[in-house]
Amino acid sequence: MDYKRKLKDYLEREVAVIQKLDIESINTVLNVLEDARFAGKKVFICGNGGSAATASHYCCDFNKGINTNQKKKHNFECLNDNVPMMMAIANDIGYEEIFRYPLKNKMTPDDILIGISGSGNSQNVVNAMAYAKSIGGTTIAIVGYNGGRMKKMADYHVHVVIDDMQVSEDIHMILDHLMMHVLSH
Predict the structure, then answer these.
(1) How far is CA 15 from the centre of its chain?
(2) What per-residue confidence (pLDDT) applies to 170?
(3) Distance separating alpha carbons of residues 45 and 114, to the nearest angstrom
(4) How far is the CA of 47 from the CAs of 76, 97, 154, in angstroms?
């Protein structure tokens, strides 16, 4: 089989979306995260499926990669990294509460929540964002498609404008590495 045309089409679609990213919104989010670092604020992050892996990767890159040469450190916590707690909450309360429930125990009004969702409508991430907003926390949505409910409710957002989950998730990961590169150099 010759897959070259399909490979090229996918990459061309991805490049086109990258070129349309709103640099101003990315810059704003970077400043919010740097202000949080200098103020000693905690940053919670979460997502489902591929977005859960992306959330874990952001946590690693900010806590280790960026922090390596910083005197004042980022303090990220990934809500989807504690699988036993997520499963207990999903079983006993409901899957839609797996992120809101731990925030009730940990988040303060000074803290930040980053929610990652290709659709912007993942109910458990929406619920966490609603809780963060209800206590006066700062919210950041990293979304695709039309941005969904999260784009509308977040204080800040980075919107990858494409109706394609894989390309959206790819670019959400690129955003992590882009931010890491900018903040660690």
Answers:
(1) 21
(2) 98
(3) 5
(4) 14, 13, 15
Q: Which amino acid is at 80?
A: N
Helices within the chain (DSSP H only)? 4-19, 23-39, 49-60, 83-92, 100-106, 123-134, 148-153, 165-184
Return the biggest CA–CA distance within the chain: 56
**For residue 36, which phi and psi values (nearest 5 degrees)?**
-65, -45
Residues in the chain predicted with pLDDT less than 50, given as ranges, are none
Residues 100-140 pLDDT 10s: 999 999 999 999 999 999 999 999 999 999 999 999 999 99
Per-residue H/E/C for 110-158: CCEEEEEECCCCCHHHHHHHHHHHHCCCEEEEEECCCCHHHHHHCCEEE
Phi first, then psi: give them for residue 160, nearest 5 degrees. -90, 105
pTM: 0.97
> Burial level of 95, CB count in 10 A (0-12/13-18/19+)?
middle
